[in-house]
Specification:
about 425 residues; 6-stranded mixed barrel; alpha+beta; 2 domains
């Protein structure tokens, strides 16, 4: 037998001895051992693996399709998961404060539990605290001015002069406008179901109904939809209480604390935890962001669902690649036994099988990445939450696909034990 990466059978001696440097004209001289290590041995093993895969193009196409399917499934699940986390903390990232107070039973910002505003006054007793600002948050019904359909958005009430809110697109004129009665700023990236507010505002004033009360849109900012809210609005404290009359001014959803220049946030956090009652928790800004992500990852079922989707994609791809490699070894068991009879070790045959697994990983990942990029664009346009193809995500998915194919190859090489020359001949 002569195949890719195999020396020709010598006339002057046993082929196995020739491979090992046995009898012949080169007796006593060091010869390359194809079953050993080294870059050349690995290259020839990969060459044999590639020729063996492409020998039956239909089976190769089926194997690549299985890897592409697994790759797409993982890309989409990770895309939705990262979009979930990133969109959920856009508001927290836009808050300009060093520490934050939230009720100890709060699970997430969009469903926060109010706590007494007096806690902010107590926080001022700490010398490191420069100023405090309350933030009110409530889900409120908005009526589409064109269709009269009602949707729920997340309304924020703040002191426009506090400087603790830095939403993208927010302007000084907009903050000044919400000091007027019944005036709000609207999320330009809210879902279309709320109406084409940015387009209407470019033509003239936009007036609708918010919380069963007349509301005028005086400007825009950009946050976008999240898994917790489909849109957002911002107004002053006084207007917030008008739109949400059942929300007591003495009850705050988030307390923003700005420290004096040079103050240590971690030390101030520890000091506030000592002087404040247990009904509130004190979080740094990174802690506030991590708190929100933790809710979506561990408390909300959607985080578990996306994580499970990644695992299922890996299992499906692993099974498909394993079946392809296992059946390939089974169909060529005679050739593998011949290789062993010629002096090739199990190590060389393992490199051939693992070469097939790695080739499938690369050939399946490339079209999977391209299709995943297209699906990201399509999904972003439909759910209005951006799905981004980052370098980190691309490398991470390739590592998962690579590991999946390696595991499949390790499981399949057990079949090589059946390649016994004594049984075959």
């Amino acid at each position: 037998m002569q195949g890719p990466g195999l020396p020709s059978r010598r006339r002057d001696g046993n082929p196995a001895m020739a491979l090992a440097g046995g009898p012949g004209p080169h007796r006593g001289k060091p010869r390359w051992d194809p079953s050993g290590g080294g870059a050349l041995s690995v290259f020839l093993a990969f060459r044999l693996a590639w020729r063996q895969l492409r020998h039956e193009k239909s089976r190769l196409a089926a194997a690549i399709s299985g890897v592409v399917f697994a790759c797409l499934l993982i890309f989409m699940q990770l895309g939705f998961m990262t979009a979930l986390f990133e969109s959920a903390v856009q508001i927290q990232k836009s808050l300009n404060a060093d520490l934050f107070l939230m009720h100890s039973t709060t699970e997430a910002l969009w469903r926060s539990t109010p706590f007494p505003r007096a806690r902010l006054a107590q926080a001022l007793a700490l010398p490191e605290v420069e100023r405090v600002a309350p933030i009110y948050v409530q889900n409120v019904v908005w009526r589409n001015p064109e269709t009269s359909l009602k949707r729920t958005l997340l309304l924020f009430g703040v002191d426009p002069t506090s400087g603790v809110v830095g939403f993208p697109g927010l302007t000084a004129d907009g903050l000044a406008a919400i000091t007027k009665p019944d005036v709000i700023l609207f999320d330009a990236r809210a879902k279309p179901e709320f109406g084409a507010v940015p387009s209407w505002l470019a033509v003239g004033p936009v007036v609708s109904e918010l919380g069963n009360r007349r509301a005028e849109v005086a400007g825009l900012f950009e946050i976008g939809a999240t898994f917790g809210s489909e849109g957002n609005a911002l107004t002053s404290e006084a207007n917030f209480w008008r739109f949400v009359p059942n929300h007591s001014p003495a009850q705050v959803n988030v307390g923003a604390i700005v420290l004096r220049a040079g103050a240590d946030a971690a030390a101030a956090q520890a000091a506030l935890r000592r002087i404040l009652p247990d009904d509130v928790m004190v979080l740094t800004k990174p802690g506030l962001i991590a708190f929100e992500k933790n809710y979506w990852a561990n408390t909300a079922p959607v985080g578990f669902i996306f994580g499970l989707g990644v695992v299922i994609g890996l299992i499906v791809g692993c099974v498909i690649v394993y079946q392809i490699l296992f059946s390939d070894i089974s169909r060529h068991i005679g050739e593998y036994a011949t290789l062993k009879a010629m002096g090739y070790t199990n190590g060389y045959l393992v490199r051939v099988v693992m070469g097939e697994a790695l080739i499938l990983a690369v050939l399946g990942y490339i079209p999977g990445w391209i299709l995943g990029l297209g699906l990201y664009e399509l999904a972003s346009a439909q759910i209005f939450i951006p799905l981004t193809m980052t370098v980190e995500k691309s490398i991470g998915v390739f590592a998962l696909i690579f590991g999946m194919c390696v595991i499949s190859g390790l499981l399949a090489i057990r079949k090589l034990k059946d390649a016994n020359p004594a049984d075959m001949f």
